[in-house]
Design brief:
The chain is of the alpha+beta class and 338 residues long. The protein has a domain of 222 residues: Jelly Rolls (Sandwich). The chain is built from five helices and 19 strands. The strands form three sheets. Strands 1, 3, 4, 9, 14, 15, 16, 18 and 19 form a nine-stranded antiparallel sheet that branches. Strands 2, 5, 6, 10, 11, 12, 13 and 17 form an eight-stranded antiparallel sheet that branches. It has a two-stranded antiparallel sheet with strand order 7-8. It is globular and about 85 Å long. Keywords: Lectin, Membrane, Signal, Transmembrane, Transmembrane helix. This is Legume lectin domain-containing protein. Belongs to the leguminous lectin family.
Length: 338
Amino acid sequence: MGLFITLSLLFLSCFEIHGTMAADESSTFSFDGFVKSPTFDKSVALFGDSKLVTDTSLIQLTDSVSGRVGRVVYRKPVSLFQGKERNSLSFSTHFSFSSMSDEIGDDDILSFVMVPSSLDLSLFGKKDNNFSALEFLLQNAKNETVVAVEFDISKIGNCARILIGGPESAEIRNLSFVGDLMMNNGGTLSCMIDYEANSKRMMVRFRKSGSIKLFDPFFSFSLDLAKLWEDGQVTVGLSSANGNSSKAHFLHSWSFETRHPPPMWMHSEPLEPNEVSTEEKEGRGRSECIWKVLGALVLGAACGSLGVMLALYLWTICRVRRSMAVVPEESPIEQGKK
């Protein structure tokens, strides 16, 4: 009986852990293609050259003229904390894009930005603004704390710049990452940016259309979002600049999801808090997958044991009741005495 109660508590704890990792629907959105609608206008703001191409369900980020900039901003604030204790949330954002000339290069830049929800969004619509996201934020958001991940993909090589902090403590990190990410034959390039609240680390991964590799190569860097914004309310957006080229960029899809971080014991290995890596090994992603599989196996074994114990318990109860219901027959000696 004690084992039965123990397994029951184990099952409930596993269920509770699974529930805490569910996504926060209030800070989640997904656009698999873009359609003109009242919901779209209320949720998404387009600035610069960005415009919705209704016949293709795509957002054209830049025009086919050099020195053009386009931005897409999700209007509704995203919460990075939950509860009165301000528990930090992890998040993942995924977007796919393409270029008209089937390649990106010549100072073409794409960026993911996070700014406080108090920032006036009309700043993104400045007509005299032909800067990349980092240059724009440094000049127009001088009194705000921002985060921007900007990457440039070209035949010469891939590079990235990360902007973190406020006007007095702004930190720009420059790094390069390897991998053939040039888009050919009209293909698209997918990018996934993942932030883990426990390890305070942000990872940026890419995958070409038709590739069997799962978002590889990637680079990562340390970042503590809990120290940047007191209320945790931010606005997220995407920015594109074609620099000296005359290529038009297109956005195919965009999604964002917050989630509760897993318990610390589920991490396969500790992460260096101050490390900025230019290339991560594939083994880390594989080890994370292995730990997830092991967790599923442990949960399955616990549920199976619980089912077996429950069946044995019910069988024992039924057997006892059955034995009590049998009335013993009178012996011949007792019948003779009567």
